[in-house]
Amino acid sequence: QVQLVESGGELVQAGGSLRLSCAASGRTFSRYTMGWFRQAPGKEREFVAAISWSGGSTYYADSVKGRFTISRDNAKNTVYLQMNSLKPEDTAVYYCAAGRVATRGGPNEYDYWGQGTQVTVSS
Known about the structure:
This protein is an all-beta fold. It has strands at residues 2-7, 11-13, 18-26, 33-39, 46-52, 58-60, 68-73, 78-83, 92-99, 112-113, 117-122. Strand 4 (33-39) and strand 5 form a beta hairpin. The radius of gyration is 13 Å and the shape is globular.
């Protein structure tokens, strides 16, 4: 089992930057893919980015490619999402997820989820 706790979400102006963190505990192995998803009011949860703990593979949604960077610190079992050039449409609750899935997997393929952290981008 894996427990995930997100942090770092806050109010930021358009064009600004934030770094989200996801601390994982429990039986976390390199075989687990770690992903970031987001959900805005009235919308379905959507994929943002994912990274493999082994192999260094990453994958990004087209909407964030070039602006967001996912990374990991294996010593701390922590995954980060660096978000630059934020836009109002990035406003959502951001969730960290873990699963024995490929980096391109959708939300239905992940087994463990954090409670989310709110990111609000004002225009």
